[in-house]
Amino acid sequence: MSIRYRLAGCLFFFAAFVACTDWDDFKKYQAGGEIVYPGKGDTVLIASGRDRMQLLWVLSADPRVTKYKLYWNNRADSLEAPVPADVIGDTMKVMIEPLPEGSYNFEMFSMDALGNISVPLRFNGRTFGTNYEMGLLNRSIGATSYDDSLKILEVQWNEPDTVNVSTELKYIGIDSKTKSVMVGPAASASHVKDWKPGTILSYRSSFKPDRKAIDVFITTKYDTLSVNLK
């Protein structure tokens, strides 16, 4: 019987020791008061550009938030700015430039007046530049025809790339001056009423990397086409 009492006493002492140790360890992390984490932002909408990036950040509704800090390049680069009280819970527009062409991983933190920071909001994005632009190809022309009686040149366009914004068609007018018309991606044909027969057509296209992009990219050169008159 005494052995059981001794064993129970040892277990009780050990449990009490562990409990006190855990509590003491916990108190170490509570030194200076309770840890406070300001509310982190909810969502970041990314708009890519030419060597730059625009972020639309949906802010936390936490009224303690006074500023934010953004890191990228493994925290080698950062940006910090205040959060006005009247936009708490709303959105903020952040422009990062210059930001050389490439892909980036970001960490964004909310901060309060006491220096407490939120858990990170992580996201990634990409910027575009010369390398992207050099790889672009002009929307192509499928066929051309000239109605000599009506004096109208018809240009039939092939289907554009999904990120095509427009195509500029340059031509020489009957007054021998260089003129141009802009062709949207939805247009399948262009009709030019003052083209000077026998002259060359030139064209080049513009693109956005995606529908939210803030900059337009243009092919590096015009393509040319001679119209076959029958």
UniProtKB/TrEMBL annotation:
Pfam families: DUF4998. It comes from Dyadobacter pollutisoli. This is DUF4998 domain-containing protein. It comes from the Bacteria. Keywords: Signal. Residues 1-21 form the signal peptide.
